[in-house]
Each structure stands twice: as C-alpha cells, then as structure tokens.
Fold each of these.
Amino acid sequence: MNFADHEMEQLSASLDGRLTPEEQAKLEAALAADPQLRAEQAELQQTISLLRDLPPLEPPRSFALDPAVYGRRRRWGGMALRWASLVGMLVLVAALSFNWVLGDSASDLAQAPQAASQSADNASSEMAPMAATDAMSTASGGMAAASGPAADPAGAAPPAASTFPTQSFVLEQAAEAPTEAPALEPTGEPAFEATATPQLALATNPEPLETALPEAAGDAGPSDSLRLQPDTESYSDSAAYIQLPEDVYLNQAEVITPSGSSSPGTHKLVPEQPDQFNTTLDAQAQAGGLALGWIFLIIVVFSALLALGLWWMTRGLR
Amino acid sequence: MTEFERELVAASKKGDIESFNQLVRMYEGRVYTLACRMLGDRDSAADVTQETFISAYKALRRFRDGSFSAWVLRIATNACYDVLRSRQRRPSTSLDQLTQPQDDAPPREFASADPDLDSQMLMRELGEQIQAGLMTLPPDQRVVLIMSDIQGYSYDEIATATDTQLGTVKSRLSRARSKLRDYLKERELLPSQYRS
C-alpha cells in the first residue's frame, strides 16, 4: 500500500522528532488504526538505522594546507602583487588618457603654424600670378585662410591659418559677364590651373551644381558670384560663403573658382588647401603620435618591471 | 559553533594558517565522508575535500557568523555537484570504486576462517549495497540523506549547507528514505529480512 507524500513526510519527520505535539498526536492515532502504516514506519526506522551504523570513512591523508604556500607571507605577497597590478593598471589608464588628450591638442597646435606656412608656400609657388588680385580681396575682408599668405609670399604667417579646422568651403562662380573675366585672371589660366589639385567633376555645369548645393543656389542664386578666394575686387561684393556638406569635403570638392574658360557661368572645383598641406600635417601628427607611443611603451615596460620586482621581493621573503 | 572554533576562525581570517589547519583537522573527516558518499569514489572525494578547504581558506573573509561546519559542507556540496555535472558531460569515471576493498582490508578468500571476519565481510557487503542504493538517488536527495542519517546533522544545518528551506529538507529527506527503503527491500537487505 502506498501512502501519500504528506503521510510519508509525517512519518519521516516523526522519526527525527520534528513534529509538533499536535501533529505527533494525530500521527500516533493514525498509526494505532493502520497496521500497514506501522509497517512503513518500522521499515523507515530500519533504513535509518542501517545508515547510522555505517562505519566512518577515514580520510586517506591530511588535507591541512601547506603553510609555505598559504601562509601569512604568501598573503602579503599576494597583496603586494595585487597593489602592484592596481598601480600598473592605473598608470596604463592614465597613459592612455594622456596620449588621447595630448594627441588631440598637439595635433591642433601643430596645424596652425603649419597651415600658415604651407599656405604661404603654396600661394607663392603656385598662385603667384594671382597675388596682386588676392591682396586686394584680402583687404576687403571675409577671406579664407589661404588668401592671406597669398598676398605675402615672403612667408609671414598670419593667425588666420587657425580657420583651417573649420573646413569651410566657398562656392565661387564665374562672372556671367565676359567683361569681368579678365579681372579674375590677370596672368592667364594656366598658372591658376597649375595648383596640381584634381579638377573635380562636381561643377562643370551650373545645373548639377545647383542640385548638389541647394543652399548655395538658394542663398546667392546661380547668377551670383559665390567665392572664398576673392580674386578680384569686382567679385567681392557678391561673395557668399557656403558650408558644404561633409561628403563634398570627403570627395575633395572644395572651392569653386572661375575656371577661366571662355564659357561664362562655368564652374570648377579646386581645393581650398592643397594636398601637400594635408600630407605634411599627417606626417607631423604621425611623428607626434610616434613620440607618445614611445612614452607609452616606456611606461608599460616600467610598470611591468615594477611588478616583477615586487613579486621577486615578496618571493624572497618566504 | 563553539568559542574555540570562533577563535580559530578569527585567527584564520588574519592569515594564521595553523589555526585554519586546526579547523581542517576538525572537519576533514566529515567533508571527506560527505564527498565519498556523494561521489562513490575515494580519489574524487579526496580531490573535492582538498579543493573544499582551499576554497574555504580563500573565501574565509566572506564567512560571517553561523555554523562553520555547515559553511564548509556547503562548499563541499557545491564541489560535489560540479564533479557530478562533469561526469554527466563525460561519463568515464567509475562510480563503484568506493565498493572496492581498501589496501589494508583483508582479502575475501581468507575472511571465512574467522567469524569476526565473516561479520566484517557481511557488513562490508551491506555497506556496498547501501552505497549503491545511495548512488541511485538524485543528488539533492542524496546529500540530504547523507547529512541527516549518516552524519547526524540537524534540519537547520542541512538547510544552511544545501541553501534550501526547512520544508524542502523535510520533503527531500522523506523521499530519499522511502526510495532507499524500497531499494534495500527489493534486495532483502532490511534487518528484519536478512536476519530471518
């Protein structure tokens, strides 16, 4: 006969004396009335007796810990190593943060003088024929960074070079009137085209230019002169500055200047900063990063040596 | 926990390995017995016992107040569960090593010459059968039965060691006893049967 789990639990608990007086009285009444229940209780008692009579199992050896391995000195050594590791990690984090912060600021600082001198060089070597007209435009204000040094090929770097990180670009449209074109290119087009920058296909036609640069079209209108590099005084009145989208910058479409071609209204994109400028900046940034990298490496090696030394010292204390 | 045990625990927390080793000597028999009965394997039980005391020493700072014995048995129980789980993944370890005679036990063929040895042989065979019956129980019922009926721990200590409620201990113990009773009864190993 199988009894319910509750009855078996009561039987089991009664053998351990875990029933309340009321539960015990109730169980004893059931036992007195049911011989099968009494047999169950007897078998459970025999099972418990068998288990309690089992001989104890002797451990095959001592499990005491080795004082040489787990002793107090070992703990001191472990603590020293933990502290050394913590200090090393903090140094690493500080070095990484230092590298990151200083890397950014150093790159910014390096850009300013370099931008000025590089702009001057480019202007003197490649845009010299435009120097006279640029100087006039610079005086009218609102000029880009590259136009300032262009007026002074001797290399006096103005602080205007700090405008380089703004990545501003100006759309410059050729004058519709053919009579104004000669003022734009007093020395002829070949010298202007020799900037060695790729003539991008973005603005060879006014229609695609308006599509790509709706802000430019809306602000100045397709017939206005939109320019960053004021080449002539006649264009400075209608000059407008337009911030081009990032993707245009990424595609190296930067400044639209009059191409000097015979067809009025033709646009051409030329970069505001020559490629050599970015190349030199990259090289200098790499040099700065390399120096910081060496500093970082030295800190790492020093931390490792410190941790090793502490480990060796605590090991010797054992 | 006695005052002496409390002092040993306090000293052990400060890194006194000798005080901790006194605790080890006090409890290693119980831990080893629990592991042996749980795993049915002396070698694994020895490994678990050593691992238990190393873990206890490393985690001693987390032990607050209460029964040090129950705390150590809890570590041992978890270590036994880990071994049993690994056996389920890789069932290659023999489970009946515990039933094999130890090196210092007399060979069976010479046991019949001495009545005492006969009695010892009977007791050993009974012990082997009981161990085999224990191994048929689910681990959560087995550990409760071992702690209660072999090692004599109270319900409260078992609940602490197994991290369960008193009601759970009560029900698991009842089921474990019933199952082992059935196992022994089938083999006519209950006292009223094998004595007749």
Note: The two ends of chain B are 44 Å apart (CA to CA).
Amino acid sequence: MSVEQDLPAVGEAPAGPAPARKATAAVVRDSLGIGLTVGVSGLAFGVAGSAAHLSVWQTCALSLLVFTGASQFALVSALAAGAALPAAVLGALFLGARNAFYGLRLGPRLELSRLTRPFAAHLMIDETAAVALTQPDRRTARLGFAVTGISLFATWNLCTLAGALGADALGDPAVYGLDAAGPAVFLALLAPRLREGATELKVAAVGAVLALAATVVLPTGVPVLLSIAAVPIVLAVGRTREGDAGDGPDGPAGDGLATTAGRAGKEDLG
Amino acid sequence: MTVWIAVGATALGCYLLKLIGLSVPAGLLERPAVRRSAALIPVALLAALTALQTFGRDGGLTLDARALGLAAAALAAWRRAPFLLVVGIAVLVTALARLIGG
C-alpha cells in the first residue's frame, strides 16, 4: 500500500515514518475508545432480551449474528409485544437497511479483497462507518474500521451475555423500572439524528404520531412499519414549501454522515 | 421455535444488507433522493418505537411511570449524556415514580 503521499506533509518531519506512527496511534486510540464504550451498551441489550423472555442463548445469538443494535432492540421489543413474526422481522430489517448505504460509501474507500469482504461486511455498522469515513486516507480508514469493529464486537457480545445473565437473576423487570429501558434505548439512538436538522425532527414527530394513532386500530408490529410513511409525507410537504419559497433542494443540515463522507471521499479518492 | 426463526431471518437479512452495500457497484443506489430517504427511515422507526413503548399497553394507549422516566431520559439525551446514562436515568426515574406513586 502506498500511503505516504496521503499523509499531510507537516514541516518536512526528519524521521519519515514518525507522522505515520503518530496517525496510527491516534486512530487506534480513538477506535478503541468508541469500540469499548459503545460495546458496553450490550448490557442494555442483554437485559432487553431477558425482559422479552428470550433465552440467554437467543439473546446472545442475536448479538453475535445480527450485530446491529437498533435492529436487535426492535426485534426483541416486537416479539415481547406479541407482534406477528413477519412484522417483527421486517421492522428490524428496515432499521438494518442503513448499513447497506454505509457499505456503498465505504466500499471504494476500503478497497477490500474478495476474501476479507464477507468478514468486513458483518462489522459494517453505525460506529465503524463513522470512524472509517472520517479518516484521511485508506490505511487509517482500514485500521479504524478494523479496530473499532473488532473491539466493539467483542465488548458488545460479552456485555450482552453479562446483561442477559444479570437480568435473568433479577426477575420481574417492571419492578425495577427496567421496562423503561427499551424506549430509552430507542430515544438515545434517535437523539443524535434529531440534531441533524429540521427535517429529522419533523419525520420523528410525524412518525411517532402515526404509530400512536395506528396502534389503537392495527395489530401489534404494524404501526411501527406504518411510521415509515412519515418520510414521503414530510419530504413531499417540504418540496411543496420549497417550490413556493424558492429555497435550495435540501435543508442546510444536509444528511449528516453521508454529506461529510461525500466531501471526505472527494478529497482523497479524486 | 418461533423466536429462533425470527433470530435466523433477522440475522440473514441484516447480514445480506451489510454485504450488498459493499458488493454492488458504486452509483447504483447513489441517487440523492434514495440516500436521503434511506437516512430518514431509521428516524421515523426509532421515533415510533420510542412513542409506542412509552405510551403503549395491550394494544391501547396509557400514561404511567414510564412517561416520567422517558421525560427525564429525553432531558439527559438533549444534554448529550452518554448512551448508558440516558437508559439508566429512564430506569431509575421510572422505578422511583412507581415507588412513590405506589
């Protein structure tokens, strides 16, 4: 790999590999920090799985094989609420669809071989994509992706096991207020997205109202899927307003990660 | 058994979604409108899940201790508290509200 030309030439450092080593250390440190701290949230998933009356094995299988937090939480909460199987799985898949878009952006940046691609794909989640997309060159992008992904995978799975065993020992989750953990998890996942712009806020509000209204008349699991209608509704209303006011095609906030990634990608891939 | 089928189907589906992004040629799904919608769908789903699990009960709506817990969690999330702290606050406030309210 030739990465030298990608590195910033800061004051013609006398020792050639020194800045590279420094960049490597910084990426490893940041990646481990994210991987280990986010992975601890596996505790909450272990508890959620147990509260949904899944066995410890089933909860751990989800963390090992699905390995994308929001989808896992959505599936167990739908199962706990007694949703039909297709609705429960479909809700989880809709939440997992964003990982495909991370792969689209990261594929050309990571340039993985046929052999490593199937393994890397399993680690393609919010955190690994966020780390890899903000790296200045291919070497640090690969390193950040691998270190974040592996440390997060290990911590997430160990903490899922600990959470599931711990919650099983505790008994009835409602007594300790653990039934509030589920919605709080979704809120905590949602919060950073709401900072991205007014469109996100509107979609969240319309989605929540649609789901609450639908839950009175539709079977469990379906109202969650119905909330997706908030996206075309809000975008259509936005377009009509733009047509009147003659604004730009997109809000000032753009679409967060994707926008940053596009910019970074242009800089180093050309 | 049903749960294991759900686990298997979700695992397979989520893995294929991850793999497909890395494998299809760039540009196929790169249209800005598609990307914008894809970025917004999780926002709608997460908001719906939060609302339903806070106010939902047995196919209807209700207002109980969970709403207080979630209000406290929302405040924490708004102040950029870390993930586990947000969840911990929701659990603690809900438990306290039940303890006090009986």
Note: The two ends of chain A are 17 Å apart (CA to CA).
